[in-house]
Amino acid sequence: MKFLDEAKIYVRSGAGGAGSVSFRREKFIEFGGPDGGDGGRGGDVVALCVAGLNTLLDYRYQQHFKAKTGGHGMGKNRAGAKGGDAVLKVPVGTEIYDADDGQLIADLTEVGQSVRILKGGNGGFGNTHFKSSTNRAPRRANPGEPAQERTLILRLKLIADAGLVGLPNAGKSTFLATVSAAKPKIADYPFTTLAPQLGVVACDGREFVLADIPGLIEGAHEGAGLGDRFLGHVERCEVLLHLVDAGSEHAGKAYKIVRHEIEAYEAGLAEKPEIVALSKAETVDAETLKTQMDRLKRAAKRKPIALSSATGQNVQEVLRALLKEIESTRQGEPAPAQEWHA
Description:
Largest sheet: 6 strands, mixed
Distance between the termini: 33 Å
Strand order of the largest sheet: 10-11-9-12-13-14
Shape: rod-shaped
């Protein structure tokens, strides 16, 4: 498996180091007094968004991450060293949830963003901290604070500007391979795409990212086929490109099947701008193409585009339509927030 978009891991911060009970003992110095140092603070558990990753595959082979315990205090008022942090490096678009209550802890969408998941325990006080005018030789020190632990769910949602949806074998992977340098698997049978694919598309001197997800079938929201969990990868898209195979039995019914699954998924996908295209237009005759276009127009309540990735028919028109929707959505967005550090 080369692509993994969900992982369950266990994390634990570092416990604080214990304080020291020590007394100064040097020649010619009477009543040296206490000199026990404080313990060091335990390490934190931090999630860091980094470039160069596009999967959570690393967390398939390692599920336990523990920060280092703080060093114990020592004599001569020497404090213990701080424990090392446990850093979880995740790709852009990763959401972090608490596995127990499902609460969203962080959503990392930009390189460099970081969030502290668990705080390390404070170190304990050494006996120097407890000396006073009435207690000149304290023989007590505090232990460090205990570690915190948590079980997390990491969920990756790819960052793309436009998303491809449709039934299996609707021509999504062929379209992505035609308009970008991506090389998805293409074959004449359903479910050739088993994991989301990304491609950078150039159009009229501008670029945008296009995501292709595995095909949906009727009942996907109930677990049929590959289910609908891959729809999470187009949640962040500004626009959807819905491809319907011109060679399907009824283009209107094929369109409605996928729309029903999108609406059942919720998460705002049904409200996103949608461009509808009848793909594989070169595989049917002119009369069948016209019939399928009419069926699709009635079902989608908008005029579809006849598309052929093989011959290039209307490919640029579709890309321009996508680019127009992307730019209009971006213009209406507020300025991006500052990087999130906790």
